[in-house]
Amino acid sequence: MLVLKSLTARFGRSLIAFGLTMLLGQSVATRTLSAEDTEGVGSPGGDVVLYEGNGGSQDIVAVYTDTAGQETKVDPNDEARSSKLMLVREGATITVFDDPDGSKEDDYCVIRVKKPSPEYTVNSFERSYEDEYVIVSYVRKNGLDGKVSRIKIE
Ligand SMILES: [Ca+2]
Ligand SMILES: [Ca+2]
């Protein structure tokens, strides 16, 4: 109180009020930043990453967000053999097709996400199974790993 009185005497009440406002403003800004940090700054959604090798190995072929309503040819063509799902949202359905136009006459594989994981690897597109995180349904014709030409994300 003595210090405040002495500062008030020196700089005036308005300057002290300004100083307090700055301090309060700073503490609010700090809280906001730490809340964003826990959610992951710059990556609000999940990512679907296609890999050249089985089990999420070798080079990354392509990366897509997990936003619903995407359907596109995979470039480069006929390279992907596996996928990593990075925080992909619950309920997302990812379909990879051998056919570049998405025909179901050739192989395709449907991956349904039951529960998000920071990093979940679908080791192959040629196996149907279910676990805590995904339901994978492979419809066989003559092989899909290394033959992926199209992806649809719903
Ligand atoms: Ca193909
Ligand atoms: Ca095929």
Structure report:
By secondary structure, this protein is α+β, with helices and mostly antiparallel strands. It folds into 2 domains: 2-39; 47-153, Gamma-B Crystallin, domain 1 (Sandwich). 24% of the residues lie in helices and 30% in strands. The chain has 2 helices and 10 strands. The strands form 2 sheets. The chain has a 6-stranded antiparallel β-sheet with strand order 3-10-5-6-9-8, with no helix packed on it. Strands 2-1-4-7 form a 4-stranded antiparallel β-sheet, with no helix packed on it. A hairpin with a 3-residue loop joins strand 8 and strand 9. The longest helix is centred in the first third of the chain and has 27 residues, at 13-39. The termini are far apart. The relative contact order is 0.17. Residues 23-42 have low confidence and may be disordered. Bound molecules: calcium ion (CA) (2 copies). Residues 78, 98, 147, 149 line the site of one calcium ion. One calcium ion is lined by residues 78, 98, 147, 149.
